[in-house]
Each structure stands twice: as C-alpha cells, then as structure tokens.
Amino acid sequence: METTRQRIAELLREGPATASGLGETLSLPTPVVYEHVEHVSRSVAGDAELLVAPPECTDCGFDGFDDPINDPSRCPECKSERIEEPAFVIR
C-alpha cells in the first residue's frame, strides 16, 4: 500500500499536475497537497528532480512570486486575484 506522498510522486512522474488537480485525483484538500508536494520535493531521489512552473498572474503576467510552491491569493504587482496555479512535475 502506497503512502499519499508516494502516490503524489508517482502522478508527478507521469506528467505535470497542479495541486488542485492532484487534490481532486486523490480526494485531498489543496492546502494538504501543497504540504505533501513540499516534502516530496525534498525526498526525490537519484537523478530525478521536482520542477515547478511558478504561479502566474493572468492579468499582468507577473511570475516572480517568492515561494513557487504556494498558491498566492493576489498579485503583488497589479493586485489581481486571477492567478494561475503552479504546476509540478518530476523529471
């Protein structure tokens, strides 16, 4: 039986996913998925690594958020709340 983190790592090896997509697949709340993804990023072994496409503001294109493994609520540049979720993949 696999742990939740092992299942998340397996899904991320199959292809890119967002925290909300992983949460829907695994029946977990999105904030819990972010916690698991942070741990998975520290425990990826061998020649693999967790890659992150950072969150991006859909209004102004800002993508320089301090923490790429996070779901910001507003853009610091234009204050828009239309933020694309970060996407994760293990390669």
UniProtKB/TrEMBL annotation:
InterPro entries: PF0610-like, PF0610-like_wHTH_N, PF0610-like_Zn_ribbon_C, WH_DNA-bd_sf. Residues 3-52 form the PF0610-like winged HTH N-terminal domain. Pfam families: PF0610-like_N, Zn_ribbon_PF0610. Residues 54-90 form the PF0610-like rubredoxin-like zinc beta-ribbon C-terminal domain. This is Transcriptional regulator. It comes from Halorubrum trueperi. The lineage of its organism: Archaea, Methanobacteriati, Methanobacteriota, Stenosarchaea group, Halobacteria.
